[in-house]
Amino acid sequence: MNRSLLLLALLFAAVPSLASMRCGTSLINLGDTVDRVQAICGTPAQRRIETPDRRHANPHRANSVEVQYWSYGPNNGAVRNLRFIEGKLVEISTERQR
């Protein structure tokens, strides 16, 4: 019995959780586009865009992508941070304001 419970606990620990965030009555999920997130959650309180590193000698440099950082809040003392790579939501995190 204990062995079965341990195996079950390890199985659930190994399964990655799906990240989502509630905006009003809708949810956004990892993989959503910037357009979808903005349509559901509205304009973020802060937005920072890191553009691809382009050099004259090598205009198609490998591993050079656009990354966007959006923040919503504070709402009830929490700020929700989103990170997009090439227009797709890849990370949702929450931090408490002091």
In brief, what are we looking at here?
This protein has 2 helices and 6 strands; from the N terminus they run H-E-E-H-E-E-E-E. With 98 residues, it is of the alpha+beta class.
| Helix-and-strand structural type | alpha+beta
So what's the overall shape?
elongated
Mean pLDDT: 82
State the helical fraction. 10-25%
CATH fold name:
Beta-lactamase Inhibitory Protein, Chain:B, domain 1
DSSP strand content: 35-45%
Using only CA atoms, what is the Rg?
18 Å
CATH architecture: 2-Layer Sandwich
CATH class: Alpha Beta
User: Main sheet: which strands, in order across?
Assistant: 3-4-5-6
* DSSP strand count: 6
Write a concise keyword list for the protein shown above.
Beta-lactamase Inhibitory Protein, Chain:B, domain 1, 2 helices, 40% strand, 98 residues, alpha+beta, four-stranded antiparallel β-sheet
